[in-house]
Amino acid sequence: MKPFLSALLLCLLPTLAFSMEFRIEGETIHATGPIEKGDADRFTTTVAPRIDGPLFAVSFDSPGGSLLEGMRLGEAIHTAYAGTIVERGKNCLSACAIAFLGGKAFGSYAHQVRREVEPGARLGYHGFFSGRADQVELVNEVLDQSRLVNALLLDYATRMRSVDGGLLSKLLTTAPAKMEIIDTPAEIAGLGIGLVGDPLPLPRDWPTIACRNAVQRMIGAFADAKPRVGSDARTMASLEGLRRQMLDDKYPADANAEAVRVALTRLDPSDAIDLMVGEPVYADPENPPVRVTLNQGGGFLGNACYAMADAGFVTTIVVDGIDSKATLRRDDTLFANDPDRPLW
User: Fold this and answer.
1) Residues 127 and 244 in one domain
2) Domain containing 129: what range?
3) Cα angle 331-335-340, degrees, rounded to a multiple of 5
4) In what order do the strands lie in the sheet with 91-93?
5) Is residue 73 within 8 Å of residue 35, measured between CB atoms?
6) Which of 283, 273, 267, 268 is nearest to 243 (CA)?
7) Per-residue pLDDT reduced to its tens digit, 327-343
8) From CA 92, how far away is CA 60, in angstroms rounded?
9) In the prediction, which pLDDT does 147 show?
10) pTM summary value
11) Residue at a domain's end among 137, 162, 195
């Protein structure tokens, strides 16, 4: 095999004699075993014609295989409008992780991706093996091959949509003998992945993290939100207590807003909170918000952040008492986790 062609391999294990097996069970397409030449064509001819609804997904359990065939299989899955998933306890590594990027939503939402992972699954990326038999290789040749393969992968990922090219490039610098498992919020978001299955418990410091992430979005990626978020986090005991505290945060007593404060005090607490925020907050007395102090500076004027969480969403409200503003965000529960802290 020519050195150029042998470089186009992304392998976790040596090539095996058998290829990937496709088994359809209901609307789940179980794809198991290594990815070898011809698997993409078999998927197109035998599996794709049976995909006729939005719930079909390819469930991978594979150690990897041929890089080029992994890209071709991802293209075939993308063309067939099938989602991709890695279930808890299963592996999708190396070339399989490349094919996984082909997951696509069905029908009228075909411009959207559909890639899903259950907590505890192992979706792993790394660099490629050169496949050279000799141990001495010219550095320039290796670098040229690496650049070419990475360019092919980034072009493929762009066509699959919703992939952070910088993140993928970083993942591909992992040594071939190692594996970078996707398990942090930043990696999950960067690859356009949705978490499915039982919800993960929030960390103990989730209100502070959620508020830090909300402030980070407000000040931009080139500033550091950590100095702006204080260490004091206090649970609001009631909606009435929340109203009083939010009144003090948004309309300080010396801000010539006494008429507004009096009017909001006369309303139902829930209605007053909604008016101060500017949209429905859906504050839950059984799951009260936590107030996190903020530190003004560097052009940032917020002085308090309120964080609330339920099974599906995290809500943050950043209150600015100088301009009397309140900025609300609703995000999935990953927003309440440190972006770089492994989830499992």
Assistant:
1) no
2) 3-195
3) 155
4) 91-93, 122-125, 180-181
5) yes
6) 273
7) 999 999 999 999 999 99
8) 6
9) 76
10) 0.84
11) 195
